Amino acid sequence: MNLTLHLTANCNLACRYCYETHGTAHMERETALSAVDLAFGYPHETHGFSLFGGEPLLERETVEAVCRYACERAAAEGKRVRFKMTTNGTLLDEAFLRFADGHGVEIALSHDGLLQDEQRVTRGGKPTRQTLEPIVDLLLKYQPNAVAMQTVMAKNVGRMAESVEWLYDRGFSRINTAIDYRRDAGWDDDAMAVLKTQYERIADRMDAQFDDRRPLLYLNFLSKIAAYLNDRPCLVCKLGVRQPSVAPDGAIYPCNQFLNLPEYRMGDVWTGIDRKRQTEIYRASLAPEPDCAGCAIADRCRHHCACLNFSLTGRMHEVPPVQCEHERILIPVADALGARLYNRRSARFLLQYREDPLE
Ligand code: SF4
Ligand code: SF4
Ligand code: SF4
User: Is 294 helix (H, G, I), strand (E, B) or coil?
Assistant: First the structure.
């Protein structure tokens, strides 16, 4: 069973694109441990916990308590347990990285590369890249495969590729870009045209480095390529089932963007998940997106993410036009890269997919 624990909405940064409330509600330790109990009440062999904020390390004691307790239960019951945490890095230190090492906590660092100082600032408006430099070294020492999660704003899209290259040169192999999709974020035709050239430049760099000992693995492309080669949809939502969200007060919702909406509440960590409500929500999420009927790239597109749709259009099956446009740009660039890697017989590419999948 997988759960996202919303430990706090608070954060010590004030990133320009942040949608978090920065409210003071936080999850009590006992609530978090009850969420662990809830997961272990299910018969799955592996339980996964996403330790989520705001900035989760503001609740470091709770993070550590959850990991210790879940590891103890897993050991006692012959189960496996996984933890994921995305952090802004400012509160990371060697003691926590050792703890993460010992408890299997996979850390992803939110870092905007060259755009860090412009986009990711303290609550007093101060830049953060220099502060993070020693922390990046430490993180990569303990977790060399840590993902760098970059966010790009429309006004800065012209520096997106340069920024990915900076993150790669800084030591990150695995890099992901999220688009600032907020309403009125400025993704007009010009910005979209620049986005396309930026993806093409990243594809060139990935092609050049893909067979290196430390490859550039740009995750936006890899998920599309894998979906094509494995002939499976890029994303199957399973809303309310895949990864329910636990709010700070212990109430359970189908996923992140549905948090604290009473009509989507489906139980709490003490009384459990209301199976009837969960099934209703799951079934509702299975309906197709009317605007996507007949689209040739539907299986490669993330149009089915109820959270993204809901947060931008207010409907779980209405895809925001900016998302559709983005996917129509990203997918052909990823496909062209996949074809290039295959045609030049990239050893890593062929090994990764174990066969000649295109023949
Ligand atoms: S790190 Fe930035 S984006 Fe993340 S919660 Fe804090 S302010 Fe928001
Ligand atoms: S709503 Fe989006 S994030 Fe949530 S389970 Fe579905 S695809 Fe995943
Ligand atoms: S590309 Fe657009 S129309 Fe096609 S599946 Fe994605 S969102 Fe729907």
Answer: coil
